[in-house]
Structure formats: structure tokens, C-alpha cells
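Input record (one chain):
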Amino acid sequence: MDTGKTNFVEKVNNHDAVVGIVGLGYVGLPLALAFCERNFSVVGLDIDPEKISALTSGESYIRHIASAEVSNAVSAGRLSASTDFSRIGECDAVIICVPTPLDRHKQPDLSYLRDTAVAVAPFLKRGALVSLESTTYPGTTDELLIPLLEAGSGLCVGTDFLVCFSPEREDPNNKEYTTRTIPKVVGGHSPEALAAGCALYGAVVEKVVPVSSTQTAEATKLMENIFRSVNIALVNEMKMIFDAMGIDVWEVIEAAKTKPFGYMAFYPGPGLGGHCIPIDPFYLSWKAKEYDAPARFIELSGEINTSMPYYVVRKTMEALDQQGSTTHGARLLLVGLAYKKDIDDIRESPSLKLWELFQKRGAHVDYHDPFIPSIPATRKHGALAGKQSVELSELPAYDAVIVSTDHSRIDFEQLPNKARLVIDTRHVCPDAPNVIRA
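The corresponding structure, as predicted from the sequence alone:
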């Protein structure tokens, strides 16, 4: 497909290529706007009609993306959004940014990717490049995506269309690194696909990092996030050990990080959140079983991190007991629902797991989050949809307040003065008799 590849690269270089982006969430929307900023025409596709309606009206539904960015792209004619997948036929490049969660058995759930491939395939045009960005196990692009595209389109990969994998590296609300400045890893199904992928992403990001295969690119994303998962699990385990010894793990970390070499600071918390770090270890350990390759260290990190909400619940129960109270019937307030500070993203948030565990023990649970006025619908916690954030003026009405997310907008210095009992999982409250570190 050398001629097709040359034509594709020329279209990209001339900014004549139409870029289709499937999945307009925390990864897809920033990427769409990045292409619009470089004067590409972008077709955004999503199965959620509310997202399409918002974008068509020039409105953003992600807090750290200004509506002005969306409005400018739409009014300039660069961005159009639709639920109609036949518009794939307009696109020279199709970038897939759909969720790849775990099922209830903690095994890879690739249903969103399968459904997307089936929806895209009938409209795939000859000479197009398909790029997968969704985090997954090595081999997914070649073993799952390509066969589905070939079967649904009647086209042949390498001859009629090209395929690459380029893992997303979005960090919502990161002020230092953006879609444009984060280096982009690209692995192609063939040399021609690699060249096409590098040309496409090179038009919108400052640095492209080519690797030898789609499997290598898939493995790169897992390496990055499993590295974080393992180190967070280590510090979480050390927190529990040091707590039993009466040692403040945060003081230990601050002292340890004064060493100028051989140490990188990681911090404990109530569990892991976001779409990647809590999930990626299980994707690799699942795939490793196919090769009889043990992944004990990786699996253990996942187990430790997923156990942290249970530790927080236990510490809360112990603290209530010391006050002559019980979890059953207690009024509890979760401070922070987002999975990390200063964002409105609740995907896989440990706060949701805490809510579930406290409710099972008979507690009445509310939350306060300045970035999440009401809880959106989620796959795992649908019963919480629509619940409203309460004001911190209500603090005295609660038996215990659990600090789960350390948002900058919250005055944690004053929290112990207004609450009966504070369970601090982020080490943001001052020392006080009613503050328990967890």
C-alpha cells in the first residue's frame, strides 16, 4: 500500500486529512481539539447524544476544557460531532478512544472496542489509517481489532488500510503537560502504518516516539501505569505497617525524598482511581496467563491498592467505636468524590467504593465535592446517580468526615474545628485530637 501511504502522508502534511475520533471523553475530546487547533477537519463520534448536543452547541462537558475552545472549533467549521457512524466514510484517519474497563471478575472487558470496530468497519474508506488509543493488553490491535475491521469492511489490512496503536497519555487538568506537549508513542502493524501514524500525530504533538510494533506500544502504556501501581501499593502497604508501629508515613516520605538519587516519592491514599492505574495491572496479568508467565508482583500490587478502601473503613469504625458510636446508623460525609484533586472525574474513584462499603455497614452517606455538584450515572454505582453535594456548613451534623480527595478549594486547615471526627486519608488536615490518619 505504498501509494496509499504516500497519499495519506501528503494529506496530513497539507492538512487536508479528515480526522475521525471515536469516543469523546477525557481522551478523545482534548485530542479532537488539538487537531482542530492545527487546522484539521475533525469528525467526532460518540454514542452519547448528550455529548453530541453539547459539542454542537459549542459547550464543553469536561471542567478543565473551556467551552470557548469547543465553540471556536465548531464556529470555525473544524469540529463537527455526530452519533452517525456512517460519517467514518469521510475520514482519512480514524482514532479510537473508547473505554477498556474490567468486568466484575477483574478480567478485560473489550466490549466497547468490539462494538466500535463493528460500527466503524462498514464505512472504512480505502487508504485510511485506524489508530487505537485505548489501553489494553499486548496483542489486542493485531488479534482483535484488525480481524474485526477486515471482516466488517471486506478490506485487507496493509493493502487497503493501515493500522497503528498509540497509547493515550492524558492527565486531566495537568497544567504542565498537555496533549500537544506529551510525547506520543506509536507502533504500526507495518512499516507503512508506522510512517503514517508518525505523520498523523507529528502534526499535532511536539514529539513522536516510534516503536517496533503495536504490541510494543501496547506494552509501553502498561509499563508506565503498572510502575505507578506497584510503587503506590508499596507506599500504601508501608503506611499500614508504620501505622501499626506508631510512625507517620508522610513524615518518613518527606525525609526520604531529601535523598537526591535512588528514590522517587509516591504517596498513600484511600485507593486508586482513574481509568488506567487501577485497571492496567489486571490486563497484563490476564494476558500473561496465556504464556504461563507469572505476574505475582503485578497482581499483588493490584490487590493491595484495591484493599485500601477496606482499610479506611476499618480505621473509621475503630475511631467511631472509641467515641462510643458505631458505623451502623452513623451519618458520614465523604469530602471529595473525584479520583484526584481539582478535577471532576469520578471514574474508578475510591470514594465510590468507600460509599458502597459504608452503606453496607448501615451508615448514611453524603458527600461534598466543589467540582461535582451532582453524581453522574456510572457503570458500577448507578444507584448514586443524581445525588447532590452538600455544603460544608453541614459538617457538625455528621458523626465522621472522611477526607478522600484533597481539592485545593477546600479549607482543610479549618475542617477539624467544625467536624466531630475527621478521617484524613490524604494528610491535609492539621494534627488535632479528632483527626485520625488513615
